[in-house]
Amino acid sequence: MYFIRCWRRSTAVVTSIRSIPAKRLLCSGSEDDTVFALSSGQGRCGVAVVRVSGPSSALAVRSLTRVLPAARIASLRSIIHPQTQELLDRGLVLWFPGPRSFTGEDCAEFHIHGGPAVINGVLQALGSLPGLRPAEAGEFTRRAFSAGKLDLTEVEGLGDLIHAETEAQRRQALRQMAGDLGRIYQDWSDRLKRCLAHVEAFIDFSEDELVEDGILNDVDVAVRQLQTQIGDHLSDQRRGERLRTGVQVVIAGSTNAGKSSLLNMLTQRPAAIVSPTAGTTRDVVEVPLDMGGYPVLLSDTAGLRDTTDSVEQEGVRRARQRVEQADVTLAVVDLTQLPSEPRLMPAFLSGHLRSILEQTSDRRQCILILNKSDLISTEQKRSVRASLMQAGNVPHFCFLSCHTRDGLQDLMTVLQERLKTLCGDPLLGNPSLTQTRHRTHLQKSTEALHQYHHYRDVDLVLAAEGLRLALSSLGRITGKVGAEEILDVIFKDFCIGK
Fold it and tell me: What is the mean pLDDT of residues 191-207?
């Protein structure tokens, strides 16, 4: 049995805190402030977690519970509004004195009942205390980064873990959050620092014969090794990025081939209108799915044909555009439209695929779906199979009946193998690139290393500058160099309370 379910990225909604003045909600305070927020999910739940971080965290705990509990030990306490002395709830309180906390600061957590009235009551009570303000999106994690608890790759891994909708996404995010990717980049940075130090030492002291002979040759070897390793890392076919954002699977073909029926069958719901009238689908219908743990954005497209209808022409244009962007194309063909002569079938299908894929040269990522197999005999099916197998120039094909669902399991097996190839196993081998930002900085680093080789025998100062630029580009990935200009980009997707 195959596993498939819908997935959707969620956006956290901030609980309203009506009693806190608007100017305090909108202000962007300094990291010396003490901040608080709901750190668990929205909606009614058994337990909600309210987190506090900053120098006044101990004051907040004492104000609401009267007694500061022992560090890192859950204590059952009555939670009282500090101004009205009203009992708000009874829950667990945890105290994490810095630096042994998530943010590196003094932190506290209130584990309370998850009803909206209880949550709002505790948030309002915290907001009434001097020196406390609501946290901004991602502010807890940003403070952890500032305290050196996380580097930027680990921060991004945490963000991906929060948004993970499939098993493979979760595994990749956990591995990045554990620092596997950051350790690779840090190792490259350390080796580059050593190379740069040796080159600068040679520039400054070679005339005094204080530098060993052959040190520049050792640098040359080390730089080439780094170039090879970075190049291998970049040539990962975007596996990590594709796994993070989802694989684009596009259903394409002529009108009435069964494309919308296939979409409905894969999504297990009537996501698209199915009609015997040709040209029913005129726009792209997208459905996010979890296929065996891999994220997929499945798209049904308009039937490809020549038409005078301006609306349908736009639908055909969008369909072709989507096929060009596809990671996998499901080319659907109506079996009843194939030539009756078996030897003509390969040429017919080859021409049909050219009309669908156009200039897309890589047919390895195309799966040919021979639909309506219930309308032909077993003998005809055997003849079609033999003819296509003999031709050898047709991509992988599957017989399918969207009416009887016969052949669905074979299609899912092929599709899941294709997804595994495209995304890889996030637990095996070295971790893959997950962010376009990483790829950009690594490419700049590679270009800078080429600068080193270009100037190596011409101007050693310019060659050293190439190493310095490469080191700076690597540092921007982990946040060790020039992080400020990219912090807002990274943290903007975090929810309040994280």
Answer: 80
221: left (phi over 0), alpha (psi -120 to 50) or beta: alpha
Q: Residue 1: what pLDDT?
A: 43
Does the pLDDT at position 97 exceed 60? yes
| pLDDT average, residue stretch 108-125 | 95
Query: What are the φ/ψ torsions at residue 86 (nearest 5 degrees)?
Result: -80, 140
Characterise 356 by phi-psi region: left (phi > 0), alpha (psi -120 to 50), beta (else). Answer: alpha
Answer whether 19-147 and 157-236+433-478 agree in fold.
no
Q: Indicate the class that CATH gives domain 157-236+433-478.
A: mainly alpha
**DSSP states along 439-485:** HHHHHHHHHHHHHHHHHTTT-HHHHHHHHHHHHHHHHHHHTSSS-HH
Q: What residue ranges in 65-141 does DSSP mark as E strands?
A: 75-80, 87-96, 107-114, 132-134
Residue tagged 């081998």 (tokens): 429
Q: Rounded mean pLDDT of 7-19?
A: 35
Q: What percent of the chain has pLDDT over 70?
A: 87
- Alpha-carbon distance of 298 to 286, in angstroms, equals 6
Q: Which residue has the tokens 């560090």?
A: 71
Alpha-carbon distance of 79 to 97, in angstroms, equals: 20
Q: What is the CA radius of gyration of the chain?
A: 30
Query: Is the per-residue pLDDT at 109 higher than 80?
Result: yes
70 to 48, 142, 183: CA distances (angstroms)? 21, 26, 35
pLDDT (tens digit, 9 = 90+) per residue, 136-176? Answer: 988 999 999 999 899 999 999 999 998 999 999 999 999 99
Q: How confident is the model at residue 278 (pLDDT cuts 50, 70, 90)?
A: confident
Strand order in the sheet with 34-38: 75-80, 87-96, 107-114, 45-53, 34-38, 132-134
Q: How confident is the model at residue 132 (pLDDT cuts 50, 70, 90)?
A: very high
Instruction: Encode burial over 202-223: b for 16+ CB neighbours within 10 A, e otherwise.
Output: beeeeeeeebeeeebeebeeeb
- The C-alpha atoms of residue 336 and residue 299 are separated, in whole angstroms, by 24
Q: Which residues contact 197 (CB under 8 A, 6 or more apart)?
A: none
DSSP state of 367: E
State how far the Cα of 479 lies from the Cα of 149, in Å rounded to an integer: 12
pLDDT at 276 over 70: yes
Across-strand partners of 35? 53, 133
Torsion of CA 462, 464, 465, 467, to 10 degrees: 140
Query: Mean pLDDT across the chain, nearest whole number?
Result: 85
CATH for 19-147 (3.40.50.2300, 3.40.50.10490, 3.30.70.1350, 3.30.1360.120) = 3.30.1360.120
In order of 37, 105, 158, 467, 488, the CA distances from 484 in angstroms are 24, 20, 19, 22, 8
